[in-house]
Model the fold of this input.
Amino acid sequence: MSKYETKSIRNLAVIGHGGTGKTSLCESFLHLSGKTDRPGRVDDGTSSLDYEPEEQKRHISISAATSNIDWDKHRINIIDTPGDSNFTFDTKSCLRIVDGTVVLVDAVAGVEFQTEKVWEYADEFHLPRLLFVSRMDRERADFEKAVASIRDRLGRKVTLFSLPIGAENGFSGVVDLTSMKAFAFDEQKRTEKIIDIPADMAEIVQKYRDILVEDIAETDDELMNKYLENSELSPEDLQTGLRKGILSAALIPVLCGSALKNLGIHPLLNTIVRYFPSPEDIGAVTGTKPGTDEVETRLPDESAPFSALVFKTIADPFAGRLTLFRVYSGTLKAEQGLYNASRKLNERIGTLFFLEGKVQKPVEMLIPGDIAAIAKLKETATGDTLSSEKAPIVYPKCEVPPAIISFAVEAKTRGDEDKLVTSINRLIDEDPTIVFHRDDQTREMILSGLGQIHIEVTVEKMKRKFGLEVNLKTPKVPYKETIKGKTTVQGRYKKQSGGRGQFGDTWLDIEPLPRGGGFEFVDKIVGGVIPQQYRPAVEKGIVEAMAEGVLAGYPVVDLRVSLTDGSYHTVDSSEMAFKIAGSLGFKKGVLECQPTLLEPIVNIMIEIPDEYMGDVIGDLNSRRGKVLGMDSVGHHQVIKGQVPQAEILKYAPDLRSMTSGRGTFTFEHSHYEEVPAYIAEKIIAESKKDGA
Done:
């Protein structure tokens, strides 16, 4: 049996902008709870949660990591999430399965762009949350300024649960307004100790304590009546009101501290276990019967049918695939069969274990609320639901965001092409935001992702995990060729070299079709000037010539070719001769029809803070883009427009630079348009140079 009951479990994600100290805070949790001998540090590579070499190299979290601690007779499952926009899908997938979240705000920088994004994710999943103003020991740390940015940028009423004692180098502790106790760090015992509230803070502490009580009273009509009658609430009333207010998100607490100095951590952990919801508080979870829209629910009860949601997969070259999941109902024992309700197949499991960073701790049985892992599930992927086969259920999964940057990828070593495909597919198991395909037109292998760093990290993982080195280059733009005029042209092929010769003679009418019209071949032969058995060969020759292009080697589209006349030789004519004749005639005719290049145009949607509007629109115009509309979303503007695909191949890092990392965009193919003449000339010249 599990040591804990479901009601004593707290499932928590730590989220925020990159560099706000999320991992350091989680390491402080582990240390103060006795899980580790000393707090790991991101900067010196000793973090137990940022353990991947790519993370240690960049000093950032790239992949979500799980661990757990014991605190005040509760089990807290902790997920440390990435803060970089390149890895937000991982963060969102984790928020999908937790019951509450701690949002970090830097005491120097205040609310940053990614803070707003993850806050939106927390809103989407209706998560109770608290804000922790971190790094209070840093130079220029300003608690009041940080709180002001929270109120301004997040647009929500917040309630102070703690106040800092001092700031910057003088930061020495916090006052917990819920317990009216002060905490300082005990250097000898390496933990926080209770101290007297500084006398010079008595007035401001009382001021914010009164505000806290008022805010608690406002969460409940009964409490408000008591407060109006007595101007105070009992400790029991405060506890009840606090918990109710946080669970409903009517109260959003703000605490402060420093993970590096282990200050403010005790009040934070106490707030989590006392006021954050257990899986039982969340109650029944909703899904559907497989293959239907019929609603199914599951209670977080051990006697209910088993169900769990997979939120992450780790590709390990030695252990194989690691599948991380959260149990919603029922129990699961080791060596038990599993049913994947999403894919309607059975999986056999071996050892169950809790992940503590990269350390695997075997466990005999899981209960509702547990977050655990299984090795070597063959078919199960991120987002799948595991359940009882007799009572299947499918839970909603997170939508995978579209890729925004692409590179052509090739193995450095000739002969490693198969290894390249296998390696990337293994990494896609781990990270569904990686997109990989072969472009049939350009014949390139295309690797796409959510940003430059995302792609770089993927390449580094390929080398480390699978021993594969690759080259990246800017992908070719899939231009196309078309015509604007019409012509009638003869395509004639005659070859005599002793013995049987080759003879094919065709007359072709070539004319343009509307954009997107594709290709039409019309057989207008009357009588037997070209025998029936040779006419399909003419079309085949034309189709092959279209694929090779005429101007710059790009496929020719949007035209009609009519076979109107010709002649043949009873002995020398053949399908091959008419195929060549059709090809020659087509190539000659296209050059007489005002050939031109077409380029792909994409619909783009750019979301940016208000202050970058002018710069982004100016940049879009310089890329030959057109603004089609704008919408306001809070402090952000959403620009909708169209732009040539060639102009945004490297837009992701450019937009990031332009907006200090606060801009995001998505795009999708729209249509093809004619390339301006001055640009077409350059493309054609470059093509001829490459083909020389």
